[in-house]
Amino acid sequence: MENSIVPFGFCHCGCGGKTAISQDNDQSNNRIKGMPMRYLTGHHVRGRKGEKCGKWKGGRVVTASGYVLVHREDHPRADKYGYVHEHILVVEENYGRHLHPQNVVHHINGIKADNRIENLLVCENTSAHTQLHTSLRAESECGNADWRRCFVCKKYDDPTKMVFHCGSYVHAACNKERRRKK
Q: CA 164 to CA 14: how far, in whole Å?
């Protein structure tokens, strides 16, 4: 039996671990077939949280959807990277306590990065927040926050003149026509 030498590299995190040889090309992970892998599994992120992370931007990040996140690892609502939505922190600082996990913070002017306390409204839960958005949309579309939109004809009307069907409002005539066409 022949004594074969298995090539390897050393982990770039400094742990001294021996890395395997890459069996494929993968540009997203900087792997080249036949070359040693740069890190042992998980070592490229281990110990690099917060200020130690190469992408650290001072603990304040704006997401693609427009929300501002602040780095607070010890906060109950922190995500797995240690970030919390800034609007939650602003409301909690104003109240002097943590919000209940079901509470949802609404931005009154619709600008998600505007986290002034006068622009924030705390809703009891997701359902109340959804109802608030529904009323605001009805107010801007037809001038009456209590009216609802028919899911068939898309027109707003008094909900007492409509039926509630499968989670949405619909005119009886629209629903009858819709079912007839099926």
A: 63
Q: Do 34 and 53 meet the contact criterion of CB atoms below 8 Å apart?
A: no
149, amino acid identity: R
> pLDDT digit string (tens) for 97-111?
999 999 999 999 999
Residues forming a β-bridge with 168: 165
At 21 the three-state DSSP class reads: strand
Residue 74, both tokens? 């010890």
**SS3 state of residue 182:** coil
Structure tokens at 104: 């949802």
CB 132 within 8 A of CB 123: yes
Report the alpha-carbon distance of residue 36 to residue 39 in Å, rounded.
Answer: 9
Q: Which residues of the chain have pLDDT under 70?
A: 1-8, 12-16, 41-57
pTM: 0.63
Enter the tokens of residue 106: 């609404």
**The pair of three-digit structure tokens given for residue 146, joined into one six-digit string:** 């209590």
Contact assessment for residue 84 and residue 115, using Cβ atoms and an 8 Å cutoff: no
